[in-house]
Amino acid sequence: MCALISLRCRQLLDHRIEIFLALVDISQQFSENGNSRCCHRDPARSLEPGPEGPETPIQVVLRVRPMSAAELRRGEQSVLHCSGTRTLQVRSPSLAPDPGRKSHPGDAGSLSHAPAARSFSCTVFTFGQTGSGKTYTLTGPPPQGEGVPVPPSLAGIMQRTFSWLFDRVQHLGAPVTLRASYLEIYNEQVRDLLSLGSPRPLPVRWNKTRGFYVEQLRVVEFGSLEALMELLQLGLSRRRSSAHTLNQASSRSHALLTLYISCKTAQQMPPVGPGEPPVGGKLCFVDLAGSEKVAATGSRGELMLEANSINRSLLALGHCISLLLDPQRKQSHIPFRDSKLTKLLADSLGGRGVTLMVACVSPSAQCLPETLSTLRYASRAQRVTTRPQAPKSPVAKQPQHLETDMLQLQEENRRLQFQLDQMERKASGLRGTQMAWAQRNLYGMLQEFMLENERLRKEKSQLQSSRDLARNEQHVLAQQVHELERRLSACHRHQPGPGPAPLCPCLMVPAPSCHALPPLCSCPWRHLCPLCQAPLAHWACPWRERHLQQVLGPEAPGSRPLSARPPPWAPPCSPGSAKCPRERSHSDWTQTRVLAEMLTEEEVVPSAPPLPAGPPNTSPVLRGGAGVQNLAQRLEALREQIGSSLRRGRSQLPHSEGARSPGQVRPPC
Length: 669
Ligand SMILES: Nc1ncnc2c1ncn2[C@@H]1O[C@H](COP(=O)(O)OP(=O)(O)OP(=O)(O)O)[C@@H](O)[C@H]1O
Prior knowledge:
Largest sheet: 10 strands, mixed
Subcellular location: Cytoplasm, Cytoskeleton
Number of strands: 21
Coiled coil: 406-487
Bound molecules: adenosine-5'-triphosphate
Shape: elongated
Keywords: ATP-binding, Coiled coil, Cytoplasm, Cytoskeleton, Microtubule, Motor protein, Nucleotide-binding, Phosphoprotein
Strand content: 15-25%
CATH superfamily of the largest domain: Kinesin motor domain
Protein name: Kinesin-like protein
Structural class: alpha+beta
CATH topology of the largest domain: Kinesin
CATH class of the largest domain: Alpha Beta
Family: Belongs to the TRAFAC class myosin-kinesin ATPase superfamily. Kinesin family.
Distance between the termini: 109 Å
Number of domains: 3
């Protein structure tokens, strides 16, 4: 026997445990043992851990068991020969006359193992014809009797891995929790091999975080190698097996033993629901039941039904593998739901784990067709790639993911329903035990659909209620904002005034009505005298009265009562005013101010009269977009105009006022 794998644990920065799956030189291990052979490619590249993340091919190795006593008794010949570590030779008169020929191109010879991969989730599974040595490879020979230990050289992969693991955990020094679960898939039903009572069928469920998992599966914590070995023996003793022509102790079920390795400290572990395995490293050993030709094994009745179920699930597995090989199909749907086996291996085959497959074959000439079929299977499987990733902690689901998941599940349900209908039609032609078996299976599937739908409905209602909550929260927030705004404006209203309003220096009206409305104040001379440019804050223009008369003519501030004057914030010339020869639109004026404020983000106080009347402006005043761009151009033009008009005004306002006629300095309006 050999040690195909060894495990290494190490503490990660994020305080979880990572498992390294290190493939060791299998050929050496096998030749040490001497009673079996293995072929693989490139054994030298074995111990270096590979990079995490990129696609990693499934590792496939081949094991050829020695001829059994029964085969020798029957006078069968051995037709398989390993030459070196890379080539399997087949000597079969029926196949080809050339004794040195490879079994077929690219099969055993191309069974390779790449540099070791590492991941949290590792799977080792054995497959091959019935009696080819799968169980033996994983668990070694059965104990010869009470208290007679199996020699370490004959121990199976599992026992070797267990002792290596304990060794490493002790050296690691960190507190580590080790747990195990052990189940079998018998006649498409999952049974817990570690259950306290008698094993009963358990449902397989799916969720985003865990993928497929078995509900209510017992996960047992263990602290010593002996305890783990006991769990293994307990499971092995409960597993279904029967005798047939090719194997006296043939396993009638697929068995999955899973070890969960996680950090012990509570704060380093995400919360785990009752019965859920902990998050962390995972190592799964899968002993597939052997494919069998019912005619060759002589199976009848119950045995035949078992064989059919085994073959069917192996077929589903093969189907998934071939789809996974196709890069285009890989992106689309892989029918992992077609059987319990493919569901539970979905993660290993198409997911985030590292997988090692051990193809087991018998060297007997009688088994050659099955051997070749196993080799083809292996050859295909080794081209399947996975992308190793650390499992994520079970965080709260994102609603949008939840919705997508639900849609996917519903789609699957529809498809499965269709299959179920078809099967039901087929089953109607069956009789007796076959009918009973078919009914049992159909009923199981139906039950699963119902449970899954129930779960879907629950998740949907959860999603709905979380949305309602969000909406309510939004509503409450809006109300709070509204209330705050209301209070703020009330505060402003009740603020004490600044005292008696000063008079507007230009029009001599009380300032509140003019200056208290700065954004809309249209008083054109609020800051600068339009004639001499003196700042209004220091209104000291010696010609003030005359300027005002010049600007306003007979409408000068002192010539009529305040009440009769136009409001100071109105544009100097009202729209449509007959007195204004160059009429400007009031809206132009306002528009320009709004725009200027918008562009400069400051209060804009006009420093000159509004625009001369031009073609009607149709562009709307918009915050942004083409309208704003047009207006910005117009504003620029306006500035130009104001500048030139001011320059002109200044040049016409020399310090000797006698050089000027009154009409000359009158602003445009
Ligand atoms: N490497 C080996 N050395 C010696 N004997 C072996 C070896 N491999 C298998 N055998 C023997 O071959 C027989 C069949 O092995 P095993 O039960 O492991 O086959 P299997 O593939 O698991 O069959 P099944 O699919 O029917 O369960 C057993 O008697 C076992 O002891």
